[in-house]
Amino acid sequence: MDVAAALAAIDDTTFSLDGDAGVRLLAAALLGGAVGLEREASDQAAGLRTHIAVALGASLFGVISTLGFVEFDRERTTTVLQADVTRVASNVVVGIGFLGAGVIIQRGGTVRNLTTAASLWVVAAIGLACGVGDVTTAAIAAAVLLASLVVLRPVRTYVRHRWGRRTVAVVVHVRPHVPMESLARRLLESADVEAGPFTVRRDGELLEVSLEASGRSPAVQRWIAELAEDPDVARVEQR
Q1: Span(s) in the chain for CATH 3.30.70.60
Q2: Helix ranges, 68-179 (H)
Q3: DSSP 8-state assignment for residue 194
Q4: Domain 164-238: which topology?
Q5: Which residues lie below 8 Å from residue 192, measured CB to CB, with a gap of 6+?
Q6: Euclidean distance between CA atoms 66 and 78, whole angstroms
Q7: How far apart are CA 182 and CA 235, in angstroms?
Q8: Residue 237 pairs with which residues in a beta bridge?
Q9: How much is the mean pLDDT over the chain?
Q10: Residue 169 near residue 237 (C-beta atoms within 8 A)
Q11: What is the 3-class SS of 27-81, one letter each residue?
Q12: Residue 213 Rama label (left phi>0; alpha psi -120 to 50; beta)
């Protein structure tokens, strides 16, 4: 077979541009980018480019699942070849878990970037929905996600400030003539605040006492204010 015959044997549709697939990919990139912009503005570990990449990749897997195996769509009576196209989409869910785990940071008892990891997970689902052709559902999901990230931020701040429990590091600069027994009683004995063990070191003419206090936000702030008004305390620093 000569070259001309070989080229003629190639299906003309093999390298054709599928407009439907292009729309799906672009929709995924736009929706993922909208979520990524919010994460970028919040200075999170995963921002605009990461969310676009996740949405685009998930969308491509969706396109492959729905359009990439059309040639295998035959009646069972005519072929024994079977292709389970859902495997491609299901593995997106598994794969995004590794990326989300890499974003999460744990320092001591504090876990950071959980919301960003969750947004990556949802963006992968949004991209996959676009990839299989359900762009409307993907757009609704993106709008709800953005609302939860932006609109609910003041609500979260208010709830944390009003009812949330917090732990703060406090440094109390105490005048040197204060007895340690009296100092320990003032620092540790509080009905609303749990103050942990403290360390004491000399800071010039003052004693610097470092400790951590836990409790409801209003109670912790009230406890710090009461310490600052104590005549034996020179100043209080919250770190």
Answers
A1: 164-238
A2: 86-103, 114-131, 135-150, 152-162
A3: E
A4: Alpha-Beta Plaits (3.30.70)
A5: 215, 216, 219, 222, 223
A6: 21
A7: 17
A8: 171
A9: 79
A10: no
A11: HHHHHHHHHHHHHHHCCCCCCHHHHHHHHHHHHHHHHHHHHCCHHHCCCCCCCCC
A12: beta
Quote the CA–CA distance of 231 and 175 in Å, as a whole number.
9
Here the tokens at position 61 are 């897997």
**Measuring CA to CA, how many Å separate 171 from each of 161, 185, 195, 230?**
21, 16, 12, 14
Q: Which residues of 146-167 are buried (b: 16+ CB within 10 A; e: fewer)?
A: bebbeeeeeeeeeeeeeeeeee
CA quadruple 20, 22, 27, 29: dihedral, nearest 10:
160
Q: Tens of pLDDT along 92-150?
A: 877 887 777 777 776 655 667 788 888 999 999 999 999 989 999 999 999 999 999 98
**Tens digits of per-residue pLDDT, 156-193?**
777 777 776 777 778 888 887 777 677 777 676 666 77
Structure tokens at 35: 């979520």
The separation between CA 179 and the C-alpha centre of its own chain, rounded to angstroms, equals: 48
The residue whose two tokens read 């004491």 is 200
Neighbours of 66 (CB within 10 A): 18
For 113, which DSSP code?
-
Tokens of 91: 């593995």
